[in-house]
């Protein structure tokens, strides 16, 4: 069946390997290879380039057809969910794009509430940056993505969840621990650990508002590494309260200047979304409204 071959092709592209795709799909590697070969033979084109050193990549025609294939698979998923809904049997899969702090602090709460009501819906998670999540939504790789309002594609349908304040984090024995609010100017001479990831723009805005230039000692991408460095007393940092408040052996305080990122869920089109996706979005808004 062509649908199965479409599923095989998208999985091979997603994981970049016939072997890994076979494991994910519970198929033999030869069955995966046969599915791709038969699809190429039927269409009379080459869809994938197999290179021992570079791995697997799409040909030009492969790149052009993949978005349409994903759209067909998404449509089939919606059909299956609609049929299941009409017979009072829930089924389906929701693919969610998320970033680190949303994965650890928001997603578990949502899943617990959703699965109590809809235990038969399956989930697939993709973790990445703001930019990657937007790309995944546009290309149809995911159904829903955690985004920061104002930093995603304006064509997406966006559903705000919470506002996440930016706070200063420091070692528990730092003098800042005696304060309820830390003046932004007090950070000028502090060894500063500057995140290079998704929320650096928020931090730059805070320093611009405070009219100071931070004394950057380290620039680090990984959030967990930054938290560990703060724990060891290597410097102070600024980051989202949602993430930093969950880290042990560090203190956080509000800043004299404020900045918040509004975390939301987005989908490419609510009107085109599957029943499961619409239900998930409704439950998510209810959870954080409470």
From TrEMBL:
The record's section on InterPro entries has: HTH-type_LysR_regulators (IPR050950), LysR_HTH_N (IPR000847), LysR_subst-bd (IPR005119), WH-like_DNA-bd_sf (IPR036388), WH_DNA-bd_sf (IPR036390)
GO MF terms here are: DNA binding; DNA-binding transcription factor activity
Q: Does the keyword DNA-binding apply?
A: yes
The answer to keyword Disulfide bond applying to this record is no
Q: Where is the signal peptide?
A: none
Q: List all membrane-crossing ranges.
A: none
Which keywords accompany this UniProt record? DNA-binding, Transcription, Transcription regulation
A Pfam family assignment: LysR_substrate
Assigned protein family: Belongs to the LysR transcriptional regulatory family.
The record's PANTHER family line, in alphabetical order, gives:
HTH-TYPE TRANSCRIPTIONAL REGULATOR CZCR, HTH-TYPE TRANSCRIPTIONAL REGULATOR YBHD
The name of this protein is: Transcriptional regulator (LysR family)
């Amino acid at each position: 069946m062509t649908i199965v071959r479409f599923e095989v092709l998208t999985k091979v592209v997603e994981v970049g390997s016939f072997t890994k795709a076979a494991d994910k799909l519970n198929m033999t590697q030869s069955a995966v290879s046969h599915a791709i070969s038969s699809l190429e033979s039927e269409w009379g084109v080459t869809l994938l380039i197999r290179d021992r050193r570079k791995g697997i990549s799409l040909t030009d025609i492969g790149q052009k057809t993949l978005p349409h294939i994903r759209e067909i698979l998404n449509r089939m998923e919606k059909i299956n969910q609609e049929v299941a809904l009409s017979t009072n049997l829930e089924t389906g899969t929701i693919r969610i794009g998320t970033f680190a702090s949303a994965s650890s602090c928001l997603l578990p709460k949502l899943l617990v509430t959703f699965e109590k009501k809809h235990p038969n819906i399956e989930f697939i998670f993709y973790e990445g940056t703001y930019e990657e999540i937007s790309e995944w939504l546009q290309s149809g790789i995911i159904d829903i993505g955690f985004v920061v309002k104002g930093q995603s594609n304006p064509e997406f349908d966006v559903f705000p969840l919470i506002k996440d304040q930016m706070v200063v984090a420091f070692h528990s024995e730092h003098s800042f621990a005696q304060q309820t609010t830390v003046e932004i100017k007090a950070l000028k001479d502090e060894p500063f650990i500057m995140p290079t990831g998704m929320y650096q723009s928020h931090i730059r805005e805070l320093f611009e508002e405070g009219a100071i230039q931070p004394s950057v000692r380290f620039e680090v991408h990984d959030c967990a590494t930054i938290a560990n460095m703060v724990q060891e007393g290597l410097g102070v940092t600024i980051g989202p309260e949602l993430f930093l408040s969950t880290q042990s052996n560090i203190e956080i305080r509000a800043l004299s200047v404020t900045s918040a990122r509004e975390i939301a869920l987005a989908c490419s089109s609510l009107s085109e979304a599957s029943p499961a996706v619409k239900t998930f979005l409704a439950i998510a808004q209810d959870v954080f409204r409470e």
